Amino acid sequence: MLAASLAALALTPAAASEPINMFVEARTADAIGDQARAARLFAVLAARDPANSAIARRAVSTAIAAGDATLALSVARRMTDADLGLDGRLLIVADLLRHGRAKDALGLINERTSDSDGGFLAPLLRGWAEQQAGKNGSARLANVPADSLLAPFADEQRAAMLLDSRRVAEARPFIQQALASGGGRSTRLRLAFAAALARAGERDEARALLAGDDPALKRLDLDRPQRGVAIDGPAAGLSELLIGVAVGLARGDDRALPLTLAQIARHAAPDSSEANLLTALFLERQDQPRLALAVLATVPADDPFAEDAIDASARLLLAEKRGPEALALALRAANRGGAGAGDFARLGNVYDELGRHAEAADAFARGGALADRAGSADRWTFRLLGAAQLDKLKRWPEARAQLELGLKASPNEPLLLNYLGYNSIERGENLVEAEAMIRRALALRPDDASITDSLGWALYKRGRLPEAIATLQKASIADPAQSEINEHLGDALFSSGRRYEARFAWRAALVTADDAIERARLEDKIAAGLTTATAAP
Predict the structure, then answer these.
(1) What proportion of the chain, given as a percentage, has pLDDT over 70?
(2) CB half-sphere exposure, 380, CA atoms < 13 A
């Protein structure tokens, strides 16, 4: 592969040294994730050897992945149409649409273009061009082949085109069809359609689309819709389509193409928070947290998805061992005017990660009070999260009180039932009642391995070994990677005299055990068997 790429440079021996060194440096930079540097080096090589289309395509692809659309475009525009890769072609089209040149975009991708070169986009581009010319461009999408990449998104694009020209009655059936098939993008589509309906004067209909518990739906200001929310033109339409395709591709093993499409979507519609959030997610998947954080920082504070951007930023900062920055970010959000329950949930999570459990408990309590006042359906979660912090502080009576308050409001919440039941078993409190709680939780979530483990452990603690082993084996089969379940199974097996099997279970637990104390306990049991000192806590 390397030899073939070097040969493609077609350099004489005397002139080869510097470009070859630069090529190796570019490849190395790309391999270690420094795509910005790799793109610059490939671009220099492409400029020195304009006939080498392979190097030019590499420069374009790495520049796009790095988010440097300016560099990618500068290289792509020097290439012939035949030499352009799909990513370069899509980027040029995105740039043309962004600057209002839909007809020029059709010169690159039209009905004669093969699907592999982006031909599947032709009906979309043609439709938006006609829409802008005052025609019914949505009709262009009426007969999109079922196997086209465009097909799953035809309804949302037709709705957007019709709403853009204020043809609300014609848009309604496509809105409903798009929302019915929107899946994980349903909230985003609701926001886009609501903004467009409000612009068309249909405010009651817009408000109806914003009904629901998702916080993003509540943040859209219909009096002053934020930029980048509506799908209001060819560039926004292309961006939305590329995002949808990228989300679908991300379910597979390919990590490069989803990022490429998301970066092109960002260039087409720079104000799209959806494109920015998705790009950040894909950058994180490629171990590029610093680039991901830079992208998240572009999401405006008044955007409907601003809280998601803050959540993701805090999580990335913690993962990067930048705890003080994560805490500062969470505190700013919690201390601003109008802070909500979610802001205190985030603050509590950051404090927890930093080991500051008393402050975490206080943050969850404040969030819970706000959730109670708002009548939020998930207010029980704050009781559970706060109780977990108090538990870590060895303040079990207070933790138990919080859990009981949570159950009073949400008596059929399996996570509350399981947490209180399991921890009561651990402390030898109310064993019969605790087992009953766990059984109720399991009846509500019969496939939950953790709750199954809780029941098995409760049975073990009560001396019912055969039943405990059968239940813990079921939990282990359901989630073989959970260390705690395998340790519990090993303890139960050892106590019943099945010592070889017990060591097998403990070894399985050791494979996924993260905590140093837990690992040491497991190693002691494997070596010397179960004792009072090495029993699972």
Answers:
(1) 97
(2) 18
